[in-house]
C-alpha cells in the first residue's frame, strides 16, 4: 500500500471506508448545492467548513505521519460538523440577534475558531496559524499599542461575533469562493486527471520537446503549463507531473536540485495559467467585483511570459551544461497522443468558451464538470464499438441532449449522466469506469481540503482588518514612500509578498497582501486589476523562495534532494520572470488593460527582451560563457527596460541589442556555438 505523507493511502481504494464515504458525501453535497442552490449562502459556507474539518481530522494526524488516533479524530470531526449544523438549524435566530451572542453562540464560535486553527496547523504547518494568531491578538489587544497602530478596542464577544458568524470572518468571501467555484474546478481537474489527461499532456509535451536540447526539462515546463489549464494548483502539479519529469531529468544528467527546481518553478505557474488558473483568481474576481474573464484576460500574457522565461532559463542552462534530449525514436508522437485522447479536450474547450462568453464561473464549472463526466462515461460505452458511423451518431446524440440543458435546465444533464451510469453498470469494463468517476469525486474532495482550510483561516485576517482598519494604516506607510518613488513601493510590496510566502500558501499570501498593500498601489495610480495581479504574481514566486519554499519541499521527496537546495535553483530559474509584474505596473497594456493593441505589442516585445537579458545575466551563457562585464551590462539593459523613465526604453533597447550582437560576433570568432 502506497502511503502519502499524512498516513493515508494515495489510492482511494485503500482509504478507510469512513473517510472514503465522508469525502464522497462532501463532493455530492457541493455538486447538489451548486446545481440547485437548496440552502442559503451562509449555510453553504458553514456546511462547507464543517465538511472540511470532518475530512481533515479523519485524515491528518496531530503529529507525525501515522493515521490519526480515531477517538480524538471523531470527537473533533463531530465538533466541526456540529458547528455547521448549529449555523443551519439556528440560521433565522442568529440573523435576528446578530451581534448579541448567547452563551451557546459563544461556545460554538470559540470551538469553530479553535478547530479551524488546529485543522490549518495539521494541513499546512504552523506558519499560517501563527500569522493569523498575531492578527487575532491584535484585534484583542491592539488598543494597548502605541501610535497609529492602536485601535479603539473591541470586546471579546465582538471579536467572536466578527469571526464566527456573518460573512466577514471564517465564513467570508474566500470561503464562499471555495464552497462554489473552486470546489467545482478542483473536481473538474480531478475527473480529467483520472481519465488520463496527465498522460495526454505529458505525451504531447514529450513529442514536441523531448528530443530537443534540454528536452526532459522542457517537457517539464510544457507539461506543467498544460496541466495548469485544468488544475490551477501548483503543489498538486508538482506531485503529479513531477513523478514523471523529475526522474526523467535526473536520468539524462540533470542535478537533482536543478530537476526539482525546474518542476517546482514550472508547476507554480499553473496558478497563473488561464482558463482555470488557481483559487486566487476566483477570490480576486469576487473581492474586487470584476468578471472572472477580466482576471483571466489580464493573466494571459503574464502567464505565457512566465512559462516562456522558465523555458528560456532551462534552454540556457541546457546549453551551458550540454544536456542533450532523448532520442527522437523514444519520444511519443505529439499529435498521435492528441488523436488517441482528443475527446478529453472537449470539456476544456467548452469551459473556455463559456468563461470567455460571459457566463459565470459557477455555471461554467458546473457545465464543464458535467461534460467531463459524460465524456468519460460515454467513452467507456462507445469506444468499444468499431463502427465509425455509430460513434459519430452517439456523440452527436449526446451533444444534442447536452444542448437541451440550456433550454430545459440542469436536470437534463443529470438524467443523461444517470442513464450512462446505468449502461456502464451492465457492460464489460463499465464498472471500472464508474470506479474512476467515484475515485475522482473523493480525490477532488481531498484536494479541496488545503485550499478550503486556507480560505477559512485567512478569514481571521479579513475579519480583523475589516474591524480595526489596520490596512489603511499600513497603506499610509507605503503611500508616504511611494509619493516620491513608485519603484521603491513596488519593491517593498514584492518583499512583503515574498517574506509572507515563506511557509504559507499562495491563497493566504494573496489575501493578506491584497488587504494591506494592494489598496496602497491603487492609491499610487496602479490600476485595480494590475495592483492585485502584482501581489498575486509574487505570492506565487514566494512558494519558491528559501528558506521555506512549499513547492520546492513538495518536489524534494521525488528529487531525493533537500527542499532548500531545490529552492535556490528555483529562484535562479524564476529570476528572469521577476521583471514581468513590474513591466505591467508601468504599462498596464501588458495585462491588456485598455484597447491599444499596438501598445500591448510594444510592451510585450520590451518585456521579452528584458526577460531574455536577465536570463543571460543569471545563467552567464548565451552562445558561450559570458564574461562578468557582459552579464552586468545585460542586467543593466534589462533594468533600464523595466523602470520606464524618460529615454530608459531607448537606451535599454540599444544596449540590449548591442550586447547580443557583440556576444554572437565574439562567439563566432572563438568557435562554433554549442548545438
Global geometry: globular
By helix and strand content, what is the structural category?
A: mainly alpha
State the end-to-end CA separation: 46 Å
Unreliable segments of 5+ consecutive residues = 1-5
Which percent band covers the strand fraction? under 5%
Helix content: over 70%
Biggest sheet descriptor:
none
Number of discrete helical segments: 33
Gyration radius, to the nearest Å?
A: 26 Å
> Average pLDDT value?
82
The count of DSSP E runs of length 2 or more, i.e. the number of strands, is: 0
Task: Describe, in plain words, how this protein is organized in 3D.
The protein has 675 residues and is mainly α. Among the domains are: 12-141, no CATH class; 587-675. It has 33 helices and no strands. The protein has helices at residues 17-36, 41-59, 70-89, 91-96, 103-124, 127-141, 156-164, 173-195, 197-209, 215-228, 234-251, 256-268, 279-288, 292-321, 334-341, 345-356, 361-382, 388-403, 405-408, 410-426, 430-457, 459-468, 470-482, 486-500, 506-516, 518-523, 528-542, 550-559, 563-574, 579-586, 597-619, 628-643, 648-670. Helix 1 (17-36) crosses helix 8, helix 3 (70-89) packs across helix 5 (103-124) and helix 9 runs antiparallel to helix 15 (334-341). It is globular. The two termini are 46 Å apart. Mean pLDDT is 82; it is low at 1-5.
